[in-house]
Amino acid sequence: MHGAEKTGPDLHTLAADIKQWGYQLGFQQVGIADIELGEAEQHLLAWLQAGRHGEMDYMARHGLKRTRPEELVPGTLRVISARMDYWPETEDNPWHILEDDSRGYISRYALGRDYHKVLRKRLQKLAKQIEAAIGPFGYRVFSDSAPVMEKALAEKAGLGWIGKHTNLLARDVGSWFFLGEVYTDLPLPLDGATTSHCGSCRACIDICPTQAIVAPYQLDARRCISYLTIELRGAIPESLRPLIGNRIYGCDDCQLICPWNRYAQVTGEQDFRPRQGLEAPQLLDLFAWSEEDFLSRTEGSAIRRIGYVGWLRNIAVALGNAAPQPDIVQALRSRADHPSPLVREHVIWALEEQLRKRAVPVRQEKRG
């Protein structure tokens, strides 16, 4: 029998089985949502109209397929939304790393293996398990890999609520988790959405280094450090460079400060544990990497997507923000003639920042 033809109590049993299978595959929560995203669509269109997506053209490229699942995958009736926790066990407190300008801060989600592959593989296994139980059915799996409103769908599926920082929050675990979806033609029973529990708290708004959370539930990506260090391919605006501090790949401040994250559990997923010593690396060590080093050390990591040029750009900014040190100046000079104009621009800026903080006139230093 075709999966979409199943009716009656069997679907309730199947929904319960799907959740159990999800847990067995390493997901901490699984919920089921319908595909009505009218409110999320209006929010997205207003965000795009305001230009707050910056250069992320892909956010608008697919028209309304992002908010209308049945247009992306014809026949879709439900979305199975799944959560997998990733909070890593590290030797040092993230705040300590952020306070040490000799080290680089990498968003905690990127310390382990690239989550896209991990989640998609598990979701595919889940779909195959459903297929083994009921026969062929229509489905497609996603994990931040297509025009999908994953947070809005997860909210509808009861996995949490979208907080003022625009991340999904769950009362029992906070926000340190990944999301993945199975679009399906199975008319499964729905899970109810949860209520919001942000209350009057505005910790995430106040902590944001660049004030990218322009109002509760409203993010201007053009100011967000995650956007600036990952999505943006060109030059980082000069006015924002000093605010980035030592964050060289992403930013976690709004999550680190969130009271709900006191309940976060360390992931049991081996793939999400820190690799290559990147949880608290020395900036000068990273800046000395060759392109071969970068490709080798970021193999299987989400970090690789920014490329070697983006990597040097980001580290140069962090070095410019560090306290003045002769070895930093020397390292920056070694990259001052880099073949990439983008790298050169940020290295020169960083070098000028270092010299300015040493109270050495740039022209005098250049003559020397």
From TrEMBL:
It is found in: Cytoplasm. Residues 186-218 form the 4Fe-4S ferredoxin-type domain. Keywords: 4Fe-4S, Cobalamin, Cobalt, Cytoplasm, Iron, Iron-sulfur, Metal-binding, Oxidoreductase, Queuosine biosynthesis, tRNA processing. It is an enzyme of class 1 (oxidoreductase). Gene3D superfamilies: 3.30.70.20. Pathway: tRNA modification; tRNA-queuosine biosynthesis. Its EC number is 1.17.99.6. Its cofactor is [4Fe-4S] cluster; cob(II)alamin. The active site is at D144 (proton donor). [4Fe-4S] cluster 2 binds at C208, C224, C251, C254. Binds 2 [4Fe-4S] clusters per monomer. Catalyzes the conversion of epoxyqueuosine (oQ) to queuosine (Q), which is a hypermodified base found in the wobble positions of tRNA(Asp), tRNA(Asn), tRNA(His) and tRNA(Tyr). This is Epoxyqueuosine reductase.
